[in-house]
Design a protein that fits this description.
Elements lengths: L2 E18 L2 E15 L2 E7 L9 H10 L1 H5 L4 H7 L4 H18 L3 H4 L8 E2 L2 E3 L4 H10 L5 E5 L6 H10 L4 E5 L9 H10 L4 E3 L18 E4 L18 E4 L1 H4 L2 H13 L3 E4 L6 H10 L5 E2 L17 E2 L2 E2 L9
Helix pairs in contact: 1-4, 6-7
Length: 327
């Protein structure tokens, strides 16, 4: 059956301002890939990330460049060599998963061997700010099971202590987004351990993280910007305890699944993370995260509006996607 490809761009306002160590944003600019075969429609979404040189225009151009092959029936397997890892391939790959499941009259959950996917506890993100502002945010969400707290300054001790005091019974992930200088690394890791933090994400810049292999790590340290695809894993075993898998980095669910299995084989703890996108972007990751140690799929909760229909969130839980959304 003939295929057609559509590329849609959209802007979703963020509820307030989302701030990390590299800057702030008030909107999420996303691209949706729609592949049609007659009445069957597969969809996938990506969020171009400027940290990796991605923009709405160049990601859309990457998808457009493979339009002829997609419309001629490109498979997910062949897609992996037709496009590099990144946001563009993610949108196409997830659309193909959705299309395949609908064409076969099954679900992506069944394709992944998941009999009954369950709701998962997801982190909720606290943006970087002054300690008193972050404490106020943490206090407002202290009833949640897990908070992900953005840090990444040369002096985060006051922020860590303020957030912990404001949310004494909540599990906490710290995300430095490559922002800790080497000379503060051990100090901040000790402070985090003293505060009972569960995990610290990407404390040092990617490619400049060798120090992690030479120090005592009193807490689980997770790679994010340092890890994109399966080929990165072996070289990180001496410096990280966990890996953050994001579909926009891996280039889709196909590579993310392979990366997760290899990561588990190598002994890494698994975290499923996200960019600030809509429920369409989160849906595949919810299924992949079913046995992950850490889940951070709160993208739609940070938006002023989401796609309809969207994922169901209840308290700290995110529920598996319904077929009307994806999968």
């Amino acid at each position: 059956m003939p295929r057609s490809l559509e590329i849609h761009t959209d802007t979703f306002p963020i509820a307030g301002t989302f701030t990390i160590s590299r800057g702030s944003k008030t909107t999420a600019e996303v691209i949706a890939c729609v592949i049609r075969e007659g009445s069957i429609v597969g969809r996938g979404e990506c969020l171009p990330y400027r940290r990796y040189g991605e923009t709405i225009d160049n990601v859309a151009a990457q998808i457009e460049a493979v339009r002829p092959r997609i419309e001629q029936g490109l498979s997910r397997h062949d897609l992996q060599s037709a496009m590099p890892p990144g946001a563009a391939r993610n949108a196409v790959d997830c659309a193909l998963w959705d299309l395949e499941a609908k064409r076969a009259g099954t679900s992506v959950a069944a394709m992944l061997g998941l009999a009954t996917p369950q709701p998962l506890t997801t982190a909720f993100t606290i943006s970087l700010g002054e300690p008193d502002v972050m404490a106020a945010q943490a206090r407002a969400y202290a009833g949640r099971t897990l908070l992900k707290v953005k840090v990444g300054t040369s002096d985060d001790e006051s922020r860590i202590r303020a957030v912990r005091a404001a949310a004494p019974n909540t599990s906490i992930i710290l995300d430095a987004n490559e922002g800790w200088p080497e000379d503060t690394l051990e100090h901040h890791l000790r402070i985090a351990a003293d505060a009972g933090v569960a995990l610290v994400e990407q404390p040092l810049p990617a490619g400049k993280d060798a120090l992690l292999a030479t120090i005592d790590r009193p807490i689980v340290v997770c790679a994010d910007e340092s890890v994109h695809h399966t080929g990165d894993l072996a070289g990180l075993r001496d410096r990280y305890d966990a890996i953050n898998i994001k579909l926009d980095k891996t280039g889709g669910l196909t590579e993310a699944l392979a990366m997760k299995l290899e990561g588990q084989r190598l002994g890494f703890q698994i975290m499923l993370g996200c960019m600030v996108g809509t429920s369409l972007a989160m849906a595949p990751a919810v299924l992949l995260a079913q046995d992950a140690e850490f889940v951070d799929l709160d993208g739609p909760l940070l938006l002023a509006r989401d796609r309809e229909p969207g994922l169901r969130y209840q308290a700290s839980l995110v529920f598996p996607p319904e077929p009307a959304l994806w999968g």
